[in-house]
Amino acid sequence: MPIKKKITNSALKDLTVEQRRINDTEVSGFHALKFASGKIAYYVYYRIDGKQVNFKIGLASDISPAQARDRAREKLGEVVKGTDVQESRKQARIEQKSEKYLNFYKFLDTKYSVFLKSRNPKTAHTIISHLKSMFKCFKAKNLNEIDAWSVEQWRNDRLELGRKPSTINASVNTLKGAMSRAVEWGIIDSHELHKVKTLKFDNTRIRYLSTEELAQLNEAILERNQLLRDKRDSANEHRRIRGRDEHTDLKKVRFVDYLEPLIILAMNTGLRRGELLSLKWSDITTRGRYLTVRASNAKSSKSRVVHLNDTALSALRYWKKQNTKCEFVFTADMENPLADIKKAWNNLLAKSGVTDFRFHDFRHHFASSLVMAGVDLNTVRELLGHSDLKMTLRYAHLAPEHKAAAVNLIG
Prior knowledge:
DNA integration, Double Stranded RNA Binding Domain, DNA recombination, Integrase_catalytic, Integrase_recombinase_N, 8 strands, DNA polymerase, domain 1, Integrase_DNA-bd_sf, 5-stranded mixed beta sheet
């Protein structure tokens, strides 16, 4: 007996062969069928030109309910425009028969890249390059030859090279996404990468600066600033002697370049590096003392507002005076955002003597400082832009006095 409810992983787990079908409550026509074999497949039902069609989206073992629901919406959108997606798939399969199975790289170049560009042109090239770079071992393989064992071998090789489990998981998930699209488009009947289980690892690294390390970093910044000012003075003296125009006198400005204001903002807002480098001056409201992380630049794809403390606000005001004509807060030139800070950051870190500290750890430093100052975890979650509290809970142990106070409430 079919049931009507939102299709989720738990709903699929509870679905019996007797019930056979779940009709989704969010997308009309989207449903999941369970067969006697135990397999579950997603379908979307539609009518076109008087014809009733049940279009197969894919197996529950290959794609999640959310992915299947999104694809159901896509297909229904095509139907509304007059496309019979079932016939389109049949035609695609006929075309593919002449090619048999596509070569992995050819699929990425001729099919998957086109799809990615239609979704997000900014990230398409990065994703394709990542897949080619990470999975060079599949360059000569056809899609149907990429099986779970091949990926397991690749993964073991990466682990032996010392690559982090989180990095490996991200690459495998990117590959799974590409392979699932190949299934949807009828290029291959199925793939078995769902058998490649996610590597489990401790993802609770919290690295923040101690008082001593913070002093070391500040001292290194001051030394770097003085060095750059001295070099500018020497260069200007050289130009003055030769009757050439002098560059800006760095003794007359607050910041010698982008690095110090970037660090100040990272430490006092908790923004990710990508969010910082994509910031525009139009995203900052100094009078209201806040900045906006645009959805297009946020990891969660949701915009958020981050309030600015006195330190961050002061740094931005000084930096704005030095960059009055720039669109982006941190620029490589007058028009384009800064893309790479690795060299300057690594040199500063080496000079400071602080070890085992990445630029991303400023985000941990920000969150840890808030928690140790007594800020509740949900507020920290909102400031960090975490989609749920699970990620933020890693900082909970930094507030032991809160736990003690909670226990004392019933003492």
